[in-house]
Amino acid sequence: MAAIPNTTPSVQLVSDLITRIPEFRGVYETHVFRQGDVLPHVFFWDVVQDTVRSFLGEAPGAADWRRTLAFLEEQSARGVFDIDEVIVTSFLGDLPSPHEPGHAIIHQLGPVMAAKFVRIRPLG
Q1: Structurally, how many domains does the chain consist of?
Q2: Prediction pTM value
Q3: 85 is in which domain, residue-wise?
């Protein structure tokens, strides 16, 4: 997917994600069909779910969770407010809690996202 002209950084984040990790294209198309537009915070709920399923080995056709975390780490390190807001609020904030399956994925976060995760969820 090519860059969308005159778009917000958060919408560009979605575009860049599906360009880099095409396994999210189906999720994206369903999202746009249901929402009528790209709503990054809503879209990232599905990204979290697919990433955790991949981490748990429950979704063989899903994007490899390592690629998703690497992409988000790279984007998070850029320090762009709109991008950070989506990653922190709608990815890191929605990762499984300590009592939920898949919580161990937090130990796989890169240093930038791990630091942000600890700030928003100091108890995990």
Answers
A1: 1
A2: 0.91
A3: 9-120
